[in-house]
């Protein structure tokens, strides 16, 4: 039987944790790369801060070791999910370069670095899934660095599709709508009235659950007919 491995970033909570639970239920071994561990039983946690461009200097060996332990034959069906991200409140007329660089590093550059570490272990049937955002193709005010990084992630996914042609590895960018996560709640300062207002802009009049996003990401990872696709999973947003 072909070994099955999920490598995910930012899997300690929210969408990432739900993705881990979904893949574990399907018999995947799981490696989570994040600053804080995922408490789900059976997960191999690698404590790495990928917002530092030098994380590979010590982290690369840890990743290789964990992947080798999970794939004794050297390769297998590997699903790589780029989920870790950071969101700051900032605007184009005031953003500081060092803050902009940190967001781009974690949200865009780190996925490219991790791709190069994991690709040698990815047999045909593997997948790379980028977790984008509704803001991968539109924008809102005061979220300049996040919007820019999520637009760039779509470009990275499309480049991935073209560069890996013929290798039997497919890729997609799943763009969650407003999902009830710790990141969203922190971004609005825990203000329930703001969350209710956001939900009113969705055709189902509610926020998305993390488990729903996990199911969408699982589909994108296991259905190669979706390749090079930007998949909006947002319950239908009301355009105003």
From TrEMBL:
What PANTHER family does the record tag this protein with?
DIHYDROANTICAPSIN 7-DEHYDROGENASE
Q: Which Gene3D superfamilies match?
A: NAD(P)-binding Rossmann-like Domain
Q: What is this protein called?
A: NAD(P)-dependent dehydrogenase (Short-subunit alcohol dehydrogenase family)
The record, for InterPro entries, names: NAD(P)-bd_dom_sf (IPR036291), Sc_DH/Rdtase_CS (IPR020904), SDR_DHRS6-like (IPR051122), SDR_fam (IPR002347)
Originating organism:
Simiduia aestuariiviva
MF GO annotations: oxidoreductase activity
In the record, the note on similarity to other proteins reads:
Belongs to the short-chain dehydrogenases/reductases (SDR) family.
Q: Which UniProt keywords apply?
A: Oxidoreductase
Give the superkingdom in one word: Bacteria
């Amino acid at each position: 039987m072909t070994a099955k491995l999920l490598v995910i970033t930012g899997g300690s909570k929210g969408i990432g944790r739900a993705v881990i639970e979904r893949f574990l239920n399907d018999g995947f071994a799981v490696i989570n790369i994040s600053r804080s561990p995922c408490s789900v039983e059976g997960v191999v946690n690698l404590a790495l801060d990928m917002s530092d461009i030098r994380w590979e200097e010590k982290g690369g060996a840890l990743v290789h070791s964990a992947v080798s332990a999970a794939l004794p034959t050297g390769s297998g069906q590997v699903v790589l999910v780029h989920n870790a991200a950071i969101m700051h409140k900032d605007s184009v007329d005031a953003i500081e370069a060092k803050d902009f660089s940190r967001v781009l590093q974690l949200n865009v550059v780190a996925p490219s670095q991790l791709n190069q570490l994991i690709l040698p272990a990815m047999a045909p049937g593997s997948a790379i899934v980028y977790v984008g955002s509704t803001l991968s193709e539109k924008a809102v005010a005061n979220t300049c660095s996040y919007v820019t990084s999520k637009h760039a992630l779509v470009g990275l996914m499309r480049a991935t599709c073209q560069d890996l042609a013929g290798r039997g590895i497919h890729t997609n960018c799943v763009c969650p709508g407003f999902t009830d996560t710790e990141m969203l709640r922190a971004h609005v300062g825990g203000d329930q009235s703001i969350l209710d207002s956001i939900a009113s802009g969705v055709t189902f009049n509610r926020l998305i659950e993390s488990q729903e996003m996990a199911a969408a990401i699982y589909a994108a990872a296991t259905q190669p007919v979706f390749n090079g696709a930007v998949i909006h999973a947002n319950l239908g947003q009301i355009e105003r």
